[in-house]
Request: fold
Amino acid sequence: MKSYTLVELLVVIGIVLLFLAMGIVNFKLFSSDKIIQGDVDATASKIKQVRALAQNPLSADDLRYILALENKQFVIKEIISVDEGPEEVKPVSSIPALKLESDDVEITSPSVIDKMIFLVPSGDMNTNTDVQIVFRKKNSEKTITINKFGVLSVQQ
Reply:
């Protein structure tokens, strides 16, 4: 009768545990990268949606659209210029807010902080510099860069 020794069984169990540990680490890195990619894709879609609103010929000349970052959510808002008093800012109620899953989201630009303003009727950004949106989750990071004409690019 042939059987395995205790040492042989412990070696096999150790090898199986080693492969399992490597798989768990790789899965965590893969999943955090996919979460960030989902946020990047959804944000790019939301930016295109704001630009489409700003390019709508029915938009008034005194109306601007912004994509604002509030509590890890992107919200599309209208800014209505009024002759007297402060500008009126209200969310576009027909478009739901985009909830982000990334640990940290930051909008960076020398002239625009926490919001991106799109002009009517061109849909261009109201800035002379590039706007960057940085998404971070654990060890992963991706950046969307938008120039003043609304052209998007994504860096790993």
User: Anything to note?
Assistant: The two ends are 58 Å apart (CA to CA).
